[in-house]
């Protein structure tokens, strides 16, 4: 896996993934930015959420669960002093579907956290307290 980062100006950068997709990263005005893009650490958090959500959806589809939506909310805390690393991250999965079996949802979240989501596992190994929970929304 590869990526490139190109400085635009101030504290704005363009990050390009090896697959050719680009993300704009910028800082707030007080840091010399223009608030034109996502912050670098927000990018890390979004990546973690995407990784875990991908796993949960894949696992639930394999379990033949009739999922209609998966919405993942992440809340993170960072250290007060430099380097301002993440200290705690909580992922809350809201799984919407028909006739969902709680055991399958619970297992999908556990498998993502413990086996499949490399971003979550990497954070945990780095000393970040990563927690997960879920709720199920049944539709008719």
Automatic annotation (TrEMBL):
It comes from the Bacteria. Gene3D superfamilies: 2.20.25.10, 3.30.300.20. It holds the Pfam family OsmC. InterPro entries: KH_dom-like_a/b (IPR015946), OsmC/Ohr_fam (IPR003718), OsmC/Ohrsf (IPR036102). PANTHER family: PROTEIN YHFA. This is OsmC family protein. It comes from Halopseudomonas pachastrellae. The lineage of its organism: Bacteria, Pseudomonadati, Pseudomonadota, Gammaproteobacteria, Pseudomonadales.
